[in-house]
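Why does residue order matter? Because the sequence determines the fold. Keep that principle in mind as you read this record.
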Amino acid sequence: MDGPPAVALGVEKKHGNVMSRPPRPVDEGLPNMGDISLIFYLGAVMVTGTLAIFFLAGGGLAQCELLSTDSSPESLAMRDGCLLGNQADIDAWEIYADGHFEHAQTMTFAVFIVFQLFNVMNCRSNEQSVLELGFFSNRAINLALIISSALLLFFVQLANADIPLLGIEIGQLLSTTTLTQNDWIVIVLVSSSVFFIEEFRKLLVKSKFFAIRSQ
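Structure:
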């Protein structure tokens, strides 16, 4: 997730009027306060989205009354039996909850990685939009995104495939399970929010919307 994109960012071309700026103060930290603020700002977006995905995907199931949201007779009977202490229904609930937790865990794992991949595009420049830089202008980043995405799909979509000679499933290596097409759509929509939010911030900075106007 971090290795290939980080190396690719290292070969990003310089942007803007870097050479015309004055030197930084010798006592300025690295990262400086602006960098730290940006890290916390984008980090807050990714943490919020990741936790939301985990909860909405079923990772928050912990009680019998949260067993199911449907109203089928089978579901209602199992939930009522669980609440009354019926061991068979409690066991059924535990299987149901474990399945939802594995699904939520995989969704969280995937959205966290895709968040980072979208954020790589943000990190190409703190000021210039990706639309100005060009989505595909850095070939190293393009290759890094392909490699990271391929590894993610390998460990998730092939989670039920057996590893030859070892006799274990690929999903057991990282505790993942397969996801549906709708799951991936949700993951991409949520994780892309960090990209659009940062693009909006750059637009505001460039427009000097919050700049103090001289009289």
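Residues 35-204 form one domain.
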